[in-house]
Amino acid sequence: MTDTTDLHPEPSGSSVTANERLTALTGGLLLLLLALMGVTVLSVRRWLPEHFLLGFLLIPPLALKMASTGYRFVRYYAGDPQYRRAGPPELLMRLTAPIVVISTLAIFATGIDLWLFGLRFGSIWVEAHKLSFYIWLPAAAVHVLGHLSRTGQAAGEELSDSHSRTALTRRSLVVGSLVAGVVLAAASLTYATPFIFFRDG
After folding, report:
1. What residue numbers bound the domain in which 95 lies?
2. Residue 2 lies inside a defined structural domain of this protein
């Protein structure tokens, strides 16, 4: 039985640290899921059902990641002293971040449209989906590589912290987002998507 007296609050100034660790954990989960998604991209004709399932699975963790980074963005530009002291990301990261966010939203918006309606509104949505991906890939690569060192350090610190109440909360949020993704992916199976473009031939 765990002795709850071992749980302790995080040190002062930990709001920034907690946010960074949550972002790092969620980012690690997303990298794993995106790697699996990358396998389906290599042969979409063959792996189209899995491609859709992973797309739905990604939505809740992605929403959590955007929420955590968006929270830091708002706190920094609202003038919060802790976040101002921590400083903004490097300039290149700030320039690529909007491209990553917008292209990510475009990928999922066009993907969901194709899943819901197939080619009812024309094959332009297929091209839009591809174009969004082509824009997203290099921007996301730059963004990930730019944050990789610090993210790995933050994730390591988080995983070594076994006593903090807020660490348990962060892990619960990440696991919860994954569970929500599984539920969403399973629910998507109840709908017979009309999108069969890649299955032809």
Report:
1. 13-193
2. no
As given in the structure block, the two tokens for residue 115 are 């899943």
Cβ atoms of 185 and 53 within 8 Å: the answer is: yes
pLDDT score of 101: 95
| b/e 39-72 (16+ beta carbons within 10 angstroms → b) | ebeeeeeebbeebbbbbbbbbbbbebbbebbeeb
First-to-final CA distance of the chain: 59
Q: What pTM was estimated for this model as a whole?
A: 0.85
Residues of the chain falling short of pLDDT 50: 1-13, 198-201
Q: How many domains does the chain have?
A: 1
Whether residue 83 is contained in a domain is answered as: yes
Residue 181 forms part of a structural domain: yes
